[in-house]
């Protein structure tokens, strides 16, 4: 059975302190980090890499998980408890925060633990669930950004005709619910493609959680190409097309005479925020997407120190996308920044219930009523 670990970069190939690595007879029957017994370079840097994998990486995961948990929870509470921030964009921001929150709670702790443990300790069922949730939350994040881009497109290119459509809460909530239903449904086969596998790299039976290429309907290359296209290439191409259409309309001189200057500025601020979110997501996920794609095509082999470190860093960057958005909101949105400050510094007294979030200024009523950001 060919075993290729798609998501984690843990080096599952172990060494005894007193012996050289025992290499299985066939590369197709072992793990992705197999080397020849003559590979002296690997044997030299392995102990150093092993300490990186089992200590530094889990610590980084812990920092990402804690930051993502508190940051995304704060975003959700700030929007839900401030009716003046119940705009279309903020509803999608809540959905994005929810996807990130699910990821940091249900995926990162188990991935981090797997880096520390010799064997996958959570069983076959949870192995399938974790990989399934990784795909679900990744798709939920990127396609929420697609919805945000569609919303910006309608607000900028068709501000009058789309006003009623974008103002109806039922329509907005329905779009989010449909998004989750579609993603949860189409990704169900992921549970059949992953599972625990036993192998013997040192003559001792070990268990890993990974992609299993024992199925007959999808190879690892087919799977990774599909994942790359569906979770990265296609949505980013869609977003790029929308923004190329928006640029001429958004920044042209004179603007829309039926829209106040302050309202135009508000729309530009929101659009800038969405653009930054999209670019950040694309940059953070690009390295791991490329590495996984090249590995699936047998063009990338993590058998040198540099390549192993690059793959670990690439995964950490991708996981960082689950905690960085609240920071971006604080830097790019006055309303979010003030709301965060109020929520963090508010005491637990009853009076904080009604004053946790800052009221919107009357002078910016035109901007905040249309954007809420």
TrEMBL record:
Under the heading CDD domains, the entry gives:
7tmA_AstA_R_insect
UniProt domain G-protein coupled receptors family 1 profile: residue ranges: 71-329
Q: How does it sit in the membrane?
A: Multi-pass membrane protein
The highest taxon in the source lineage is Eukaryota
Q: Which PANTHER family match?
A: GALANIN-LIKE G-PROTEIN COUPLED RECEPTOR NPR-9, LEUCOKININ RECEPTOR-RELATED
Which key words tag this protein in UniProt? Cell membrane, Disulfide bond, G-protein coupled receptor, Glycoprotein, Membrane, Receptor, Transducer, Transmembrane, Transmembrane helix
* Transmembrane intervals: 55-80, 92-112, 132-150, 170-192, 223-244, 273-292, 312-332
Q: Which family does it belong to?
A: Belongs to the G-protein coupled receptor 1 family.
Q: Which GO terms describe its cellular component?
A: plasma membrane
Protein name, per record: G-protein coupled receptors family 1 profile domain-containing protein
The entry lists its GO molecular-function terms as: neuropeptide Y receptor activity
Entry's localization field: Cell membrane
Q: Which residues does UniProt assign to the signal peptide? A: none
Keyword Repeat part of the UniProt annotation: no
Give yes or no: UniProt keyword Glycoprotein. Answer: yes
**Stored Pfam families:** 7tm_1
């Amino acid at each position: 059975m060919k075993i290729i670990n798609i998501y984690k970069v843990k080096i599952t190939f172990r060494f005894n302190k007193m012996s050289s690595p025992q290499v299985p007879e066939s590369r197709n029957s072992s793990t992705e980090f197999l080397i020849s017994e003559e590979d002296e370079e690997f044997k030299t840097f392995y102990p150093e890499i092993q300490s990186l994998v089992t200590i530094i990486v889990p610590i980084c995961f812990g920092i990402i998980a804690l930051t993502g948990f508190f940051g995304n929870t704060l975003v959700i509470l700030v929007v839900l408890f401030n009716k003046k921030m119940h705009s279309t964009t903020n509803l999608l921001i809540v959905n994005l925060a929810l996807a990130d929150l699910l990821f940091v709670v249900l995926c990162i702790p188990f991935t981090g633990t797997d880096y520390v443990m010799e064997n996958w300790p959570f069983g076959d069922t949870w192995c399938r669930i974790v990989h399934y949730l990784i795909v679900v939350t990744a798709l939920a994040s990127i396609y929420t950004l697609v919805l945000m881009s569609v919303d910006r497109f309608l607000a900028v290119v068709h501000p009058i005709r789309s006003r009623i459509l974008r103002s109806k809460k039922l329509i907005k909530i329905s779009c989010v619910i449909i998004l989750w239903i579609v993603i949860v449904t189409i990704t169900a086969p992921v549970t059949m493609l992953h599972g625990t596998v036993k192998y013997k790299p040192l003559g001792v039976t070990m268990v890993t959680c990974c992609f299993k290429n024992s199925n007959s309907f999808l190879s690892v290359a087919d799977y990774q190409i599909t994942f790359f296209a569906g979770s990265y290439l296609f949505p980013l191409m869609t977003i790029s097309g929308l923004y190329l259409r928006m640029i001429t309309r958004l920044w042209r001189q004179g603007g829309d005479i039926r829209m106040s200057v302050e309202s135009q500025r508000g729309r530009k601020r929101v659009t800038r925020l969405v653009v930054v979110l999209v670019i950040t997501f694309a940059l953070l996920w690009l390295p791991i997407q490329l590495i996984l794609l090249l590995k699936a095509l047998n063009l990338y082999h993590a058998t040198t120190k540099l390549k192993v470190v690059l793959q670990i860093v690439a995964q950490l960057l991708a996981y960082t996308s689950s905690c960085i958005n609240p920071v971006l909101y604080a830097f790019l949105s006055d309303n979010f920044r003030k709301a965060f400050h109020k929520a963090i510094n508010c005491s637990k007294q009853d009076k904080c219930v009604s004053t946790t979030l800052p009221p919107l200024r009357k002078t910016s009523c035109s901007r905040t009523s249309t954007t809420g950001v």
